[in-house]
Amino acid sequence: MRIPSFLRRIVERYRSRFLRTARGVIHVGANTGQERDLYAYHGLDVLWIEPVPEAFAVLEQNLRGFKRQTAVQSLVTDVDDAAYDFHIANNGGQSSSLFDFGGHKEIWPTVAYKESIRVRGVTLPTLLKRKGIDPSRFDVLVMDVQGAELLVLRGAESLLPGWSAIKAEAADFDAYVGGARLADLDGFL
Length: 189
Known about the structure:
The chain is an alpha/beta fold. It has helices at about 5-15, 35-40, 55-60, 105, 125-130, 150-155, 180-189; strands spanning about 25-30, 45-50, 70-75, 75, 85-90, 115-120, 140-145, 165-170.
């Protein structure tokens, strides 16, 4: 069934109502910055963080003209400077993850990892410090990190009191082997 565009707009407005009072957004797992227009509509400062080189290059191009939005190429985890094998997916990097596919491959059988790259992770507080970015500019955390949500949150625990909202995509099944599930995030928070 095709959903009419006016209904999709209503749903998106409802899903993003928390942005109305936000100061700024840290978006971990940026991909190509698909939400840039939404964030600009709300007049937000945005820090985009993306580890996939090809997606990051497109992200930088997509952010041209968005003066309040910047991007950093990095992998956010719970440990500073640890090395990880990061798997890059064949769907424009959208399903890329630290974790192997679990139930994800059953739902999206055409998505596969095309390569893995070795990447050093960093906690969010360390990344902000290294880049000279004031964390108080941001009160919303958005994560689209394909199972690594708990790693991001554990590494950013010192920043939690400063956030008014956290938005995460989380499955209630093992989409990624060893990845966070909705119950894990609820338990942590």
